[in-house]
Amino acid sequence: MPGKKFSSVEMIGRLIGFDTTSRESNLALIEFIRDYLDRWRVKSELVYDEGRRKANLYATIGPDHVGGVLLSGHTDVVPIDDQDWSSDPFKAEIRDDAIFGRGACDMKSFIAVALAKVPEMLEHGLDVPIHFAFTYDEEVGCLGVRPLIEVLKNRPVKPRLCIIGEPTLMQPATAHKGSRRLRCHVHGHEAHSSLTHRGVNAIDAAAELVVQLKNIARRKRTQGPFDAQFDPPYTTISTGTIQGGTAFNIVPKECRFDFQIRNVPEDDPEAITDELKHFAASLLPEMQDVSQAASIAFEEQNIVPALSTPLDAEVVQLALELSGANGTCKVSFGTEGGLFQQAGIPSVVCGPGSIAQAHKPDEFVALDQVRQCEDFVDRLIERVRR
Predict the structure, then answer these.
(1) What are phi and psi of 381, to 5 degrees?
(2) pLDDT digit string, tens, across residues 15-58
(3) Where do the CATH 3.30.70.360 domains begin and end in the chain?
(4) Residue 279, exposed/middle/buried by CB under 10 A (0-12, 13-18, 19+)?
(5) Are 354 and 169 in contact (CB under 8 A)?
(6) Architecture category of domain 8-176+307-384 in CATH
(7) Nearest to 186 by CA among 286, 303, 262
(8) pTM of the predicted protein model
(9) pLDDT for 363
């Protein structure tokens, strides 16, 4: 017996109902999707994290001997902590021609539309397969998709191209900025604050490094490289957290700070980190004149590569055809697209909703955006059907 049919709006409500905040497990939602697909006789594969607390889901509808179109989305959402919601964040509510709930925009609506269209995909039959990839922990560094990509890279057949349904108001985005997060550890030497010359102040050294980062950021803002399609149109650098010291009257021995580089695709984040490391090396002689144990070390926290897909690429032309958009755009937020692209799967970003609504209280997606996404998938089915 075939499975139950859901409208896109009904499916959005079901997915929002699962609390998949990144710190929580996403298995309840993934198992719901697995069971839904199973009732439609669509086999799916789960790729778990090391603790088997979270999983990616991968499925193919249509022939399995040829690569097709991958529809990809992350299942995790950001926290609601300290946000003032006017409705239950994990219960979809329709008002003002929009669906409200955590993940409505980022990005459960795209996943829901794809799932709601499964009966139509099966009814028509497909010459070219449609693949699904639903991942975990995108919001904390695109962590979950990496083991899934490793699995796909070793397959004789993998998707030919990928559409990632992050919110772009259904306009294809051909590029996004990269993201590199690093932690700097400064190790100094403790002394009484009345004898500063006998100590190495780790906070002072860290402060010099943070100021150097700000100087590099100013240079990027004024000298580029620039790409006017990004907002802002240049590479940005920001310090996010800093911790150090134990008391006001002790020269601090330890300090650490975290910083992030969001680079336009034509800028090299490695060159920025190399410049900072060179500056750090220039601070060491003064520090080590007091204590040979003084040091500065950098720890890579996370890298999400930039995405840059040529306008004449097959995936871009397909996304323009399916969306009916007059042109493409570029987005400053990161996605899993750069990782798929590195794995040899050309990608674009195109999905319902606006990034301006993501991560905020009373997150929503307009019903008109949901309808546009439905039209997008309908055209895809028509394009690849028998």
Answers:
(1) -60, -45
(2) 999 999 999 999 999 999 999 999 999 999 999 999 999 999 99
(3) 178-304
(4) middle
(5) yes
(6) 3-Layer(aba) Sandwich (3.40)
(7) 286
(8) 0.92
(9) 98
pLDDT above 80: residue 107: yes
Percent of the chain with pLDDT over 90: 97
Mean per-residue pLDDT over the chain, rounded = 97
Q: Which residues pair with 46 in a beta bridge?
A: 57
Closest CA to 63 of 160, 147, 198: 160
Place of tokens 């310090």: 239
The hierarchical CATH code for the domain 178-304 is 3.30.70.360
Q: Strand 236-244 vs strand 254-263: parallel, antiparallel, or unpaired? A: antiparallel
Cα distance between residue 112 and residue 15, in whole Å: 7
Distance of CA 78 to the CA centre of its chain: 11
Strand residues in the chain grouped as ranges (E): 44-48, 55-61, 69-74, 93-95, 98-100, 130-135, 161-164, 173-176, 178-187, 191-192, 236-244, 250-251, 254-263, 295-304, 307-308, 329-331, 347-349, 364-366
Give the mean pLDDT of 86-107.
97
